[in-house]
Amino acid sequence: MFKGIKIRATVALIVFLAGLFYLLPSLTDRLPSLWENHLPKDKIRLGLDLQGGMHLVLEVEAEKAVETTLERTSNDLKETLMKEKVRFRRMERSGAQTITIDLPDSAAKSGFEKILQDQYPDMEVASSQILDGKEAVIIRIKEKRVREIMKLAVEQSVETIRNRVDQFGIAEPEIIPEGEDRIIIQLPGIKDTERAKNLIGKTALLEFKLVDEEHILEDALKGNVPEGSILAQGYGNTDRETGRRGNTVYLLKNKTLLTGESLESAQVKISDRFGEPYVALEFNAHGANDFERITGENVKKRLAIVLDGLVHSAPVIQEKISGGQAQITGSFTMEEAKDLSIVLRAGSLPAPVHIIEERTVGPSLGLDSIRKGIWSTVIGGLIVAVFMIIYYKFSGIIANVALIANLVILLGVLAAFHATLTLPGIAGIVLTIGMAVDANVLIYERIREELRGGKTPRAAIDAGYDKAFLTILDSNVTTLISALFLFQFGTGPVKGFAVTLSIGLVVSMFTAIFVTRIIYDYFIWYRRIERVSV
What we know:
Elements: H1 2-27, H2 33-38, E1 45-46, H3 48-51, E2 53-60, H4 62-83, E3 90-93, E4 98-103, H5 106-119, E5 123-131, E6 134-141, H6 143-168, E7 174-178, E8 182-188, H7 193-201, E9 206-210, H8 217-221, E10 229-234, E11 249-253, E12 258-259, E13 263-270, E14 277-283, H9 285-297, E15 303-307, E16 310-313, E17 325-328, H10 334-346, E18 353-361, H11 363-392, H12 394-416, E19 420-421, H13 423-452, H14 457-489, H15 492-526
Parallel strand pairs: 1-19, 10-16
Antiparallel strand pairs: 2-8, 2-18, 3-4, 4-6, 5-6, 7-8, 9-12, 9-15, 10-11, 13-14, 14-17, 15-16
Helix pairs in contact: 1-12, 1-15, 4-6, 6-7, 6-10, 11-12, 11-13, 12-13, 12-15, 13-14, 13-15, 14-15
């Protein structure tokens, strides 16, 4: 029996020391250099409500991703029909998910349908009718594919925003999808909220388009925009080539020659000539080949660099550019250039997003929450501890020892697994304190009954633990199941409560049953006490 007590005591001590080991960095900043260099130094993560920061709910316009896919398909289909020599008179988008094509005769329709079936399995014919001697065919994206595109748009948006936030340097952000088209973002400790919103919300669609120099800009501004061209607003900087400054309007070819998907990296650099920051772009191997071909085919033409529909610059291509490098210039501040490089490296969002909910928690409010949370835990713990000592005497002291071990291990687990402690999480800890001693109350009351029945202390303790165990297990398991459901289906604050409650329940089972039993066995078998103070 002595050997068994020593083994169980060793296990309990190891678990307690492990909890203290992971908790220690959260208790003090004065750690030895050996610890700083080689041992875990992660502190308990504090949620948004404890350290301040920003809470955002974004809505993803997933339908725009469908429209973008349709636009690409329309351009590709047009080139395919021309390559396969299938005649058509007009092709244009006629809705968010449809394209209308005018075919001159049945032969053209037959060739078109074969191409659609063989090369565009995600498209289907929605309707067909004869108008003015020509057949107007309306095609659309299949419904299954639409749902896939919209789901993928949200998933890619989450990943892109997470990459941007990571590069921005925000510690311990929480970015999770919610529902079909929403994203919850929590940025603890953020101070420059406007900059963060701009960084997160920028679509960052980078495109390279040729300037339309074959038509007159003034005519386009009057409403006579030629087919295949679009008007685009300038970023508001100085055009190095023309010297024009302000919100310049450009007439661009509608066709996109290259996109940001071909980028390998984007870095901020300082111009030797103007002393201003600019963003240096480097393309991947495929993008570099495309950029070299594009510049080689369009020497002496102007190539516009367009970001989110705004033309940042439109320099004249002087010669074929090899090496896969380009640059975005403009009247940037260093901060603007850095943010632009971040969003370009992280990639563009597949669909626009907009903020539908915003909350900002000040750091002073967070500190106040921490103080109140600590005081609530301390006061709650002291009241429980005093009650246990008054009502159960020496056995109450044993329960309090287990309670201290419970708190140390629980907080150590939070630190070890990088769980986030929130204000509702502190409420979960306070509740755990009560539930931890609740198990001891059940055991002690059973021991009292056995002692009143005339049993010896050893027999009363054995019976108390054995008969109360199933009741304790049942109550803790049912509560744990409820906590797991809260974690699975709850939002941020509810999840914080569920995390600490779940961990606390498991730890309290260990301390209230395993640890207290070791102490009782020590006094019964080693000290051979003749009565139990309970």
